[in-house]
Amino acid sequence: MNVLKLSSDLMSFKSISPKSAGSLEFIQDLLNKWGFDCHLLEFGETKVKNLYACFTGGKGPNVCFAGHTDVVPPGDEKEWDSEPFTPLVKDGILYGRGASDMKTAIAAFIVSSKKFLDLNKSFNGSISFLLTADEEGDADYGTKTVVEWLSKSNKKIDYCLVGEPTNPNILGEMVKVGRRGSLNGEILIKGKQGHVAYPEKCKNPIDDLLLVCSSLNEKLDEGSKTFQPSKLTITSIDVGNKVTNLVPNSVKLKFNVRFNDNFKSEEVIKLLKNRLDKLECNYDLQTKVSGESFFNFSEKLTESIVNAIKTVTKNDPELSTSGGTSDARFISKICPVIEFGIVGKTMHQINENISIKDIEKLSDIYFLFLKNIFKDKF
Ligand SMILES: [Zn+2]
Fold this sequence. Notes:
Elements (H helix, E strand, L loop, with lengths): L2 H9 L11 H11 L3 E7 L4 E9 L5 E7 L19 E3 L2 E3 L7 H17 L6 E7 L10 H10 L6 E4 L11 E3 L4 E10 L3 E2 L9 H12 L14 E8 L7 E2 L2 E10 L5 H13 L5 E9 L7 H15 L4 E3 L7 H4 L5 E3 L13 E3 H19 L4
Parallel strand pairs: 3-6, 3-7, 7-16, 8-15
Antiparallel strand pairs: 1-2, 2-6, 4-5, 5-17, 9-13, 9-14, 10-12, 11-13
Helix pairs in contact: 1-3, 3-9, 7-9
């Protein structure tokens, strides 16, 4: 089983989120042949596909590799130098949608698991895969739902590695051990519309807006042991006033908060409400939580991957909690989770690509990771 071949096979499926387009079915066929217990799961009205597959060797820990086969749309295909869903190899580089995010990492963990199993069928534990076709979009019927299904079905995962592209530039430079939470907010500030020449007859919501902005921009915290400080970013201010002689009736402000493990999302919302209430302006706050922060650390899991990375790449990876949300936030609810994948430099871009050497190295890293975690001696 060749990692470049499997990467290319997976990249040929037009699995634009949330469509599997045959990608998960293809993997299921492969794993079935190797003796994995496969469950192709469909959730939601649109029957979003997910795959959970497990190979049990012994009673030891179940180590799960997680990822997604869906990809973002290619954008304007004319801008691409090659067909986005016809993988192309040129000068040691593999081009196509999903090369970085994250079909090559899936190929790498499947190939390394097969190699591990071929060498030792009776290892003491289980190897499983949790794959979804719903990560890049709303992610409502993806990993989140699979995690619920696992709990209901009494299927236990002990350690999980998510193969998202965690390295900004070089393979082996960064492992993610947690992520900040994220929430979006919208504030509508109401005033009283009127003529600018008669300010005493109106209430300008922009005056209140300025107070709201400086209040929102106040520090949330100083950071925590493992996380950078929480940060609120104002992303939009909308008055929509097209004339020059009118005090507007209302203004709308949008913001996003990335918060660390000092807060649960409802605590962030409470803190913001307290601050806004002190301003005595007429406001309405709406919030939507995208994910809580998490830090589910396991020394065994971390050491197993870090040691493998060091051996293969000679790099000492940074243990980071930076960046956006990922499906690891759902898995962290049931077991320790870590993220390590390929280089993410071109993810979601036109002409997405990856070095073939890096895919091979990643496969070697995952193989060593399995050896480390199961402590098998060959
Ligand atoms: Zn991804």
